[in-house]
Structures are given as C-alpha cells and as structure tokens.
Design goal:
By secondary structure, this protein is of the alpha/beta class.
C-alpha cells in the first residue's frame, strides 16, 4: 500500500508531501516534495491508498449559527457564546479538546488563528477531491484523514518541541529529531533524503503525516466513539496513533 502525508500551508511554497510505499519489511520514502500545488495533491490522492493531511478539515459546529445570528441581528445564538467558555466553543472543535485531553497539546484554533488560512485551502481541496473521487467523510473513515504530527510524535515518545523554524537551534533540533525517528523506525528507508528532511520541518512533518496515515489505514488510531461521532462527522477528527512506531510495518 501507499500512504500520502500532506503538510498543508495556505500557499504552495510551504506545502510539503511525502509518499511511503509499504512492504513486508517496512516502508520506503518513494516521493518527497516541497512547493506543492492543489493539482499535485489531488493527483497524489488518486494514486495512493490513504492520505493524512495536517490541517483541519472542518470548523466548530457552533461557529455557523453564531455567524448567521450575527449577520441577521439575531441575538439569541450570539448570546449563547457570551464569555470565555462560550467563545472557546467557537474557537475549538470537539476533536481539539479530545487531543488536549489525550496528549496535553493544544491544537491551533481553526477559527481564531492563522490556521484558518490553510483550512480554507483544505476545504477547496476536499471539494476538488470529491469531484474526482467522491466526498471523503470528515471523520477520516474514508481515504482522507486529519492528522497532527506533533501529537503523533508525542505518542511515539519523540520530543517534537523546538524544531520548527530556520534558526540554528531549530535546525539542530530537527536533525536530532530525525535521528531519533530513524533509531526508533529502522525499517523506514528514507531513500537518501536525510539531508532534505533535516533541512525542512515541512518535509519532516509530511513524512510524519504519511506514517500516521498508515496507522489510520491499519485501524491503529483512536476513533470517535458514540459521544464524539456526531461532531466528528461535521467538524473533523484528528487521528491519534494507538500504537508505537514498531506497530506500523506488516
């Protein structure tokens, strides 16, 4: 099987993709690219079995009634979100709260942070994919699943802090993190791309997304239970691995 990881940014220049080919002994990095446009992502989606995308695939359910009420000068749905607790329901999805409870990481808000820009692009991508391959469920039960590399790294026991950026400290941290990943996943053949991965946190995150996509395909992630299923179907669901790295190969 082939798993695709997408580290989605608002613009193509910072968008990275990675394709892993899985066999009996492990996985090989078959494709790695930075500066990826929508068409390439859609094409790669069609050529792979499962895609893990590092970007929200939806917005909080509470947000639309709030905005609709505001536009219509209907105070009722607006006043339901008076105060900090109410505004948190507009900023964070059910899956964001679940991730925080499981990992102590707080995902960026899709509606109140710069993450909204990539999410808008992601919504367009989902529409383009739907036109060619059918709509993909937002809960990740199809071929497209939302992933969160920082959470995957934490679950796998890797220190995913301080590696994002272009400073010397961040570069050193990324190189060390890549070495930790290679030590824990000796079955992962990076096909000579070590230097590229050590020089780009976007490329690195795309590989982590592709690894997490493999966990999704193997049913080795935490799925929404009855309490979370409805929200996951509309807001999206971040898939957290339920296994170690050693559980990913055949």
């Amino acid at each position: 099987m082939k798993s695709l990881g997408v580290d989605l940014a608002a613009a193509a220049a910072k968008t990275a993709v990675a394709v892993l080919e899985w066999g009996p002994a492990g996985a090989t990095l078959a494709h790695l690219a930075l500066g990826v446009d929508d068409q390439e992502i859609v094409d790669l989606f069609g050529a792979t079995d499962v895609t893990g995308i590092d970007c929200p695939v939806g917005w909080p359910d509470a947000l639309l009634p709030f905005l609709t009420g505001h536009l219509a000068s209907d105070a009722g749905p607006v006043l339901q979100h008076d105060g900090i607790a109410g505004r948190r329901l507009l900023a964070y999805r059910d899956t964001d709260r679940f991730v925080t409870a499981q990992t102590r990481l707080i995902p960026l808000s899709v509606s109140a942070d710069r993450l909204a820009h990539p999410a808008m692009r992601c919504a367009v991508l989902q529409a383009k994919i739907a036109g060619l391959h059918g709509p993909q469920p937002k809960d990740g039960s199809g071929r497209l699943a939302e992933v969160y590399p920082a959470a995957s790294l934490r679950i796998w026991g890797l220190n995913g802090r301080g590696y994002k950026g272009r400073g010397s400290t961040e570069t050193e941290r990324l190189a060390a993190l890549l070495a930790e990943l290679r030590a824990q996943a000796p079955w992962l053949d990076l096909a000579g791309n070590e230097a590229r991965l050590a020089g780009s946190d976007d490329l690195f995150d795309a590989v982590v997304a592709a690894l997490t996509a493999r966990a999704v395909a193997c049913n080795l992630t935490l799925r929404p239970d009855a309490a979370h299923a409805a929200a996951a179907g509309t807001e999206g669901w971040i898939h957290l691995p339920s296994c170690g790295l050693d559980g990913l190969p055949d």
